[in-house]
Amino acid sequence: MLGLGGIGSLVAEYLARLGVANLTLVDTDTVERTNLCRLVGATVEDAERHTLKVDVAERVIRQAYPEAQVTKLVADVAAPSVVEHLKSVDYIFLAADSMRARLVVNALTQQFFVSGVQLGSKIVVDEVTGRVDDAMSVVRPMRPGNGCLHCSGFINRQKLALEFATEEDRQHANYGTEDPNPSVITLNAVAASTAVNDFLFDVLELRPDDPVRYRHMSHVRRNRGQSVELRDDQQCPECGVKS
Asked: Does residue 233 form part of some domain?
């Protein structure tokens, strides 16, 4: 699991309560006061002590499943040691809000056949009026040979370049607003529960063998889910046919 913030903390608890016995947690961030409205299991004391988010997630996991095997990697997702470890996992929940994380996990899916899902929440604000235009929960499954974030247009090259140019990733996602403390725990819960349900039904082989679709669930303007058809770019550097 990459990213133990608002969505990742929910996913960690859900998986533990479902009985998933081996969990790998990847995150370098510590708890801040602005996280408390959305970080499951975090306390004021954690914020004051700057407790690692992976430590909070492990605490929540062990409360639900004391025998769980938890591996914590406090390192950048692009670090060779992290990438090497992730090559051997069965499934990746990508809840880190960075293009760098998307690039790495997308490559793991397409080149090393590790299935996963990218999930997130977003608030869309009109720049002129300041009005909230939409609030979205996003679930984007990734399967080898299908579900490529790169050729589907969800890896922004400009943002990716900026991230690699800085020494540290952003401390907090801005979810499309300038508010440092957005109340998005309910949006996070929609994305997390949808992604974990998909994982559960896939493991139990209860889902039909339908084409992969991304789901962008709008809660304001349309109040319904939108299925996004994936692009198939044969020239894509990640999933295209190599000549």
From this structure: no
Task: Give dist(CA 139, CA 190) in Å, integer.
Answer: 9
β-pair partners for 115: 91
Residue 242 lies in a domain: no
Q: How many domains does the chain have?
A: 1
Retrieve residue 98's tokens: 């960075």
Side chain identity at residue 122, one-letter code: K
Nearest to 20 by CA among 213, 202, 224: 202
pLDDT tens digits in sequence order for the chain, 243 residues long: 999 999 999 999 999 999 999 999 999 999 999 999 999 999 999 999 999 999 999 999 999 999 999 999 999 998 999 999 999 999 999 999 888 888 899 899 989 999 999 999 988 888 888 888 888 899 999 888 776 887 766 765 656 555 554 445 444 444 444 444 566 899 999 999 999 999 999 888 887 777 778 888 887 765 555 565 666 666 676 676 554
How is 5-69 classified by DSSP, letter by letter? SHHHHHHHHHHHHHT--EEEEE---B--GGGTTT-TT--HHHHHHT-BHHHHHHHHHHHH-TT-E
**For residue 88, what are the domain limits?**
6-228
Would 237 be classed as within a structural domain?
A: no
* pTM of the full structure: 0.83
Return the residue matching tokens 């608002």.
6
Per the rule left: phi > 0, alpha: psi between -120 and 50, beta: everything else, 78 is alpha
235 belongs to a structural domain:
no
**Residue 199 is part of a domain; what is its CATH number?**
3.40.50.720
- The SS3 of residue 197 is helix
